[in-house]
Amino acid sequence: MKQPVAVLMTAVLAYGASMLAPAAAWSQSKDQQAEAQSSSAEKKRVRRAQTLRPHIYKKLDAARALSDEKKYAEAIEALNAVEKIKRNSYEQAMTHNMFAYVYFNQEDYTNAIGAYKNVVATKNIPESLEQTTLYSLAKLYLIQEDYKNALAELNKWFAMVEKPNAEAFILRAQMQFQLEKYQQALPDVKKAIAMTKEQGNQPKENWLLLERAVYYQNKDFKNLARCLQDLSTLYPKAQYWVQLAAVYSELGQPLKELAALETAHEQGLLSKESELVNLAQALLGQEIPYKAAAILEDGMKDKKIETSAKNLSLLGDAWMLAKEYDKAIVVMAKAAEASQAGKDFYKLAQIHTERQEWKLALNNVDKALKLGKLQQPSSAYILKGLILFNLDDLAYARDSFEQAQKFAEAEKMADQWLRYIDGEQKRREYMAANT
């Protein structure tokens, strides 16, 4: 479940297209720029407005054009020439902004950061420019995985903006998550998702993945289940249903665990062996063996589940619990032959016992005891004693129950059988004496 790095990097990349907000202003007219500068400070402290003179604008726009043509060296040379001209503070800031644009296009993020820092260091720049530059700085630091500086720049942006949007809260949550500040990340990601829902929109999948990662790190499984419910409903994928089932298992809710897996199966989302086997095991846990066996058998026919000794053994268990003994014997015989494990021969002996096939049962329980490594050897000795008793071999049955008697968990049952055998022997002796 744990995929925090992949989750976050996917989310970060989703924001790449909006990284160049400051430089995009070059497609606007000078009048549009001036209008944007004046409107951004309506409710903030007023800064003296400065203009971008036509000849400076033309030189900066020419540098932008060179950059768009990937003539980066010529673009930098053009900007260096502008640097030699006397400019007001706004023109200086926009020159630095264009340097950042050119460096960013070259993926020279270190110099782009330096240029943006020069923008915000310039006095008396419009707040709109300062805000967009701080936001761009935060994203550039995030690209370089410098999460501490990314968070510092973004917090400066938050301090300036009256109504941050949902994407800004998600961005800050990403940074806090990478800094392992999981408790601080949670309010931001919840705020972003709540804002989106209030607007009647669907939260982005990457946002829910971030929320999932935060809840997982905080070990908040109850809310993790709720988040995975959202992911499973809005973005149906097998992995989300399987993870939801695992969380229900962690919470001790086996019925909900089974419901999640069955829903995914009904939607045709479960295709991996592990997913189908998990569903079968969940069905067995709720005493629905026939359906579990059908899923395992179909999976093997479709080659989605390997016909390994382990999987055959599980299928044999399912058929046995479903009391489909003919099918159980065929499958368990294959499992035992493939695994050569004592436990599988023991299961085969159990099936033959249910069918009262005593000699076959004895043959398989002897193999199980010889191979060993049984979870409870005492159960095998009890089973062997029962088989021998039904074969009317009381002496050897007694020997088997005496072996079982050595195990604490089987002592009581073995004593009962030994007393029963003693009684049976006395009865037979009495009948023989009075015949």
TrEMBL record:
Keyword annotations: Signal
| Annotated organism of origin | Thalassolituus hydrocarboniclasticus
Top-rank lineage group of the source organism: Bacteria
Q: Which SUPFAM superfamilies match?
A: TPR-like
- From the UniProt annotation, give the residues forming the signal peptide: 1-23
UniProt protein name: Tetratricopeptide repeat protein
Which Pfam family is one of this chain's hits?
A: TPR_8
